[in-house]
Amino acid sequence: MIFEALGAVLIGFAIALSATHWLPDRFPERTLTLATGPVAALLGALLTRSILGPGHPVQVMIAACAVGAALLSVLARPPHRRLRRPTTTLKGHRTA
Questions:
Q1: What is the pTM of this model?
Q2: TM segments (predicted)?
Q3: Which terminus of the chain is more exposed, N or C, with fewer CB under 10 A?
Q4: DSSP for 45-87?
Q5: How many CB atoms lie under 10 A from the CB of residue 43?
């Protein structure tokens, strides 16, 4: 069980590190992202192990990866876009 937990933490850290590396504008809080990844993966591994029981290390690691990625996606922000203003005035609309 210790190796499953350690593996889940390492998987979560790898997912969080790759998310901050590839999408730095979507994950501006690097410390929060790097903390959430391992905790989420460990939570997924422990939950899967409690449901399946011992003897399913591959399934536990797959679930750790899935839960870690899913909970990291909650932290993702939309990309910054410039707001476009209409170039023409709308009918019946007054501009100040």
A1: 0.77
A2: 6-24, 31-52, 58-76
A3: C
A4: HHHHHHHH-SS-HHHHHHHHHHHHHHHHHHHPPPPP-PPPPPS
A5: 17
